[in-house]
Structure to design on (120 residues):
């Protein structure tokens, strides 16, 4: 969603998206605990997180390498599945990226939930 201010388009994140983000700005680079992931997943096993990435960490990576990197930054594991992402803006920490993905394999691998509970 955008609005016009002083002749420029200004990005305004969807309030519903912001309400689902479960981060604190001052802890943007902290990886959530497995218990946090288990508690914050939606009914389909998805979590949403906000990460900051330096541009130099993106340049030269393949899509698979990029997805692995943002998965690790978002949940601490490359096992995040069905990843979607959107650039939200810029900050002193780097490019802000909203990451959403299925965390069930992360929780199964950690022994937090059984495979049948994760839907797999």
């Amino acid at each position: 969603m955008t609005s016009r201010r002083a002749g420029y388009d200004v990005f305004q994140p969807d309030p519903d998206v912001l309400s689902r983000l479960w981060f604190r700005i001052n802890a943007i680079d902290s990886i959530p605990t497995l218990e946090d992931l288990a508690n914050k997943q939606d009914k389909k096993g998805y979590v949403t997180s906000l990460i900051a990435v330096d541009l130099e960490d993106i340049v030269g990576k393949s899509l698979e390498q990029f997805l692995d990197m943002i998965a690790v930054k978002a949940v601490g594991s490359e096992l995040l599945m069905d990843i979607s992402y959107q650039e939200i803006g810029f900050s002193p920490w780097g490019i802000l990226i909203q990451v959403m993905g299925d965390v069930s394999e992360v929780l199964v691998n950690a022994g937090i939930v059984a495979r049948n509970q994760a839907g797999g």
Q: What stands out?
A: Strands lie at 2-5, 8-11, 46-53, 81-91, 94-102.
